[in-house]
Fold:
Amino acid sequence: MTKDIIILILLLIVLFLTYLINKKKVKKIIYKSKIKKINISDFDQIFDEKIISKNLKGPKEDAIIKSFNISPQNKIVGMTSDYEAWIISALSKKSNKIFEFGTCSGKTTYLMALNSNKDAKITSLTLGPNQVKNLNKESTDNKISFRNIINESIYEKFLFSGTDVENKINIIFEDSTKFDESKYINKFDLIFIDGGHTYSVVKNDSEKSFKMINKNGIILWHDYVPGKQSAKNVVNYLNEISKEKNILNIRDTSLCIFRNRD
Ligand SMILES: C[S@@+](CC[C@H](N)C(=O)[O-])C[C@H]1O[C@@H](n2cnc3c(N)ncnc32)[C@H](O)[C@@H]1O
Structure:
C-alpha cells in the first residue's frame, strides 16, 4: 500500500515537472487561439520574401528597417519581441500618421519614428508616474493587468529623448479613458494598441481606434496570448470583437491586426 502511494506521488511529481518544463507548449494546447492566424506575408505585400537561393529567402527592400536592441540587463518592462518590432517598424515605413496607446519606455515609439518618413508624425498616449494614483478598477478588470498598469507607468523620459527623431513624436500624458478622440476621426494610417491591458482600457482604446483609423489604415494590438494571466482581458476582448470585425492573429506573434476597409 505505502509502495503504491510512493509510486503515485513520484508519478505526480514527474507529471508536474514535465508540465513546468513544457509549460508554454501545454498552454498552447489548452488555450487555443480563437482568432484566425495569418502569415504576415499574406497580410501585406511589403512582407513578400525574395528568393535568394534554393534554400534561402529573405526580406525585400520594403521590409528592411532601422533597429536597435535593448540589453537584457536593462530590465525594461512591456516590450515587443524582435519579430513583432520588425513587423511594426516595416509597417511604419509606409505610414505618415501614427498613433500609439501606451508609450512605456518608448521602444516602439522610437522604432516607428526611426522607420517612418521624415514628415511623419507619431502621437503616443501614456500615463506618467503621478497619474496612476486615481485610476479606476472596473469589476471586469483583471487584477494582474491593473497592477501592471502601475508598474509600467514609470517613465517621464523615453528611449528617443534627445535623439534626432524626437521632433516627430508627440507624447500625451493622459488617461486614455478620458482622451477625446473626436479631433482625430479617420486620421491615422497606423495605430498600435498597447496601453492598459485591463478589459475597460482595451475596450476603450479599441473603440476609439476604430474611429481614429483612416480608410485602409491598420490597427495592431499587442499581447494576444491565450493562457497568459496578465493578457486575459486583451484575449477576452479581442475574441469577442473578432466575431464582428476581421481581426487576425499574426502567426508566431502576440500581435492582432485589422485593416479598415470602410
Ligand atoms: C505595455 S506598456 C507599453 C509598451 C510600449 N508600447 C512598447 O512597445 O515599448 C503599457 C503602457 O500603457 C500605459 N497605460 C496603461 N493604462 C493607460 C491608460 N488608461 N491611459 C493611457 N496610458 C495607459 C502605461 O502607462 C504604459 O506606458
In short: The pocket of S-adenosylmethionine is lined by residues 78-80, 100, 102-105, 107-108, 125-127, 149, 152-153, 175-177, 194-196, 201 (CB under 6 Å). Residues 88 and 151 are 24 Å apart (CA to CA).
